[in-house]
């Protein structure tokens, strides 16, 4: 077998794919050319390592390492690692791809050590983790686990009206049940915060994921002329929306939770017109499901009260809600070892959370992010910390496989 690229070479090869020349951010939306190019890169890496690639009908991939004498695993015997290759709009380089590149590099480390696993090890790539195209986060893993049905998912559309069913029809898929062999799952991810910086640790282990959700706020009003319509005669949904953003910010600050309006669609979207409708999406996260429900109820109540004063309408729809995830404590302790890596919570959602909720024993490793910035072109991790993450993942696989 020809020599395979090491972590740093793989990272250099993947880095240009889907990167904007203007902002330096990434646009790897699922089933688009950039994401397909990244997937082709992954398949080339799998072929170079002699891995057995399986596909399901949703666009997810698992590449299995089965050394001589290690047959396909009985149900629940294989160890799965991996992450995703898609990005948010204008996202960072590390969110997702770091876990995929590190997983391939960890296999190389194990081979260099002469490690002979008694269980197959798979490297997975889940589709549409970010929800940046079809609006439902962790869509690939939700479909793989049955948390979301194909009948519900296939009719989801992107901003151009393309359905998920049509998008998936344009890529190569298969019929494999990718989780049939999986006995546990470990996802390595760049930390999306500064906990490890504060602890002066290069690597950490996840304890839990906060419950979180995405909610669509549809504000309706009356289109009118921006110059001739008196302020007191307006039914302006933009005003209701603006006050709702402030209310959400205040409620999150008061309760120590998270609330973000990061996407908005205005109609007719004219400079000299009062809008007729505003649709906005709230991302809300909290330390418990009760805190999340309470915060959302407060935001909606304040928004409805404001709509009553503005003469506008409001309908709130939950598009995606994920409950709290508590990772397998025994698995986390086994991975962290006696006092080696800190165990920390995360406020970000991951495929690992979906698999854990589906009953798969699951753990996460985090690699230090020096600024804590994520979902941005400024997202970063030092090479030395990334390599420490690769070693930590290899050590983890050696303990599990």
From TrEMBL:
Coiled coil: none annotated. One of its GO terms (molecular function) is hydrolase activity, acting on carbon-nitrogen (but not peptide) bonds, in linear amidines. Keywords: Hydrolase. InterPro entries: Amidase_Cbmase (IPR010158), Peptidase_M20 (IPR002933). The keyword Iron-sulfur does not apply. NCBIfam families: hydantase, PRK09290.1-4. This is Allantoate amidohydrolase. It comes from Nocardioides panacis. The lineage of its organism: Bacteria, Bacillati, Actinomycetota, Actinomycetes, Propionibacteriales.
């Amino acid at each position: 077998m020809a020599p395979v690229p090491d972590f740093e070479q793989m990272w250099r090869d993947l880095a240009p794919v889907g990167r904007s020349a203007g902002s330096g951010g990434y646009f790897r939306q699922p089933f688009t050319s950039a994401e397909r190019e990244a997937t082709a890169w992954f398949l080339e890496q799998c072929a170079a390592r002699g891995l057995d690639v399986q596909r399901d009908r949703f666009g997810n991939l698992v590449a299995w390492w089965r050394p001589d004498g290690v047959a396909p695993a009985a149900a629940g015997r294989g160890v799965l690692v991996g992450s995703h290759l898609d990005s948010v709009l204008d996202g960072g380089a590390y969110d997702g791809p770091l876990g995929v590149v590190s997983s391939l590099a960890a296999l190389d480390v194990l081979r260099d050590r002469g490690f002979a696993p008694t269980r197959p090890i798979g490297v997975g790539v889940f589709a549409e983790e970010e929800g940046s195209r079809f609006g439902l986060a962790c869509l690939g893993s939700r479909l793989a686990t049955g948390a979301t049905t194909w009948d519900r998912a296939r009719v989801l559309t992107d901003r151009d009206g393309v359905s998920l069913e049509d998008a998936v029809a344009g890529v190569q898929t298969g019929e494999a049940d990718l989780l049939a062999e999986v006995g546990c799952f470990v996802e390595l991810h760049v930390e999306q915060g500064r906990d490890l910086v504060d602890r002066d640790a290069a690597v950490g282990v996840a304890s839990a994921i906060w419950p979180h959700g995405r909610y669509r706020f549809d504000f309706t009003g009356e289109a009118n002329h921006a110059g001739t319509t008196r302020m007191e005669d307006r039914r302006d949904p933009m005003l209701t929306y603006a006050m709702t953003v402030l209310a959400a910010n205040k409620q999150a600050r008061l309760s120590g939770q998270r609330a973000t309006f990061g996407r908005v669609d205005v109609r007719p979207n004219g400079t000299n017109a009062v809008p007729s409708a505003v649709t906005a999406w709230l991302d809300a996260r909290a330390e418990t499901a009760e805190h999340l429900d309470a915060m959302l109820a407060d935001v909606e109540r304040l928004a409805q009260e404001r709509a009553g004063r503005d003469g506008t309408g409001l309908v709130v729809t939950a598009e995606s809600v994920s409950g709290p995830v508590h990772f397998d404590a025994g698995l986390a302790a086994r991975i962290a070892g006696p006092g080696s890596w800190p165990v920390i919570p995360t406020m970000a959602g991951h495929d690992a959370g979906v698999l854990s909720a589906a009953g798969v024993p699951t753990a996460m490793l985090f690699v230090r992010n020096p600024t804590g910035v994520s979902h941005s072109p400024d997202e970063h991790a030092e090479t030395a910390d990334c390599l420490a993450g690769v070693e930590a993942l290899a050590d983890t696989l050696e303990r599990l496989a």
